Input
Amino acid sequence: MTSYDARTALDAIHHHQEQTRDAYVRHGSSLPYMLVTALAVFGFNAAFDLPNPWRTLILLAAGGLMAGMLFVHHRRAPVRRKPSGAEWAFSLWLAGAVIVILVAAGIGARLLKLPEPGMIAGAVAAVATLVAGYATRPIIKAITRRDGHG
Output
């Protein structure tokens, strides 16, 4: 093997690793999965404004929707890879930020004495989930590129 052949093979490996990272990020932030996640977030929060038999039904439906989405998301993934510690940390930070927005919206709705504060907070959190999914896509891509997983 010549040095040119070795360099060409190494360049091909790096190219495939980049394609893998791009597919991983693209699948993770695809619109159908983000919409289902936002709908589940809305359902979880809106359920608390409902009377008990409906509350339980909506909570179970939202939980089932989220579990089903996670199962389908995992099964249809074009790339399977273990997330790095930085990816986990960023995901937890992002979930925490959405929870802070949810709590702030709920407190604001109650302070303003708006009807159905759980539904309003859920709608705000659902929109925040969608915005966060798109806004953080370049950050996730940079984290996966920096970590060098392929």
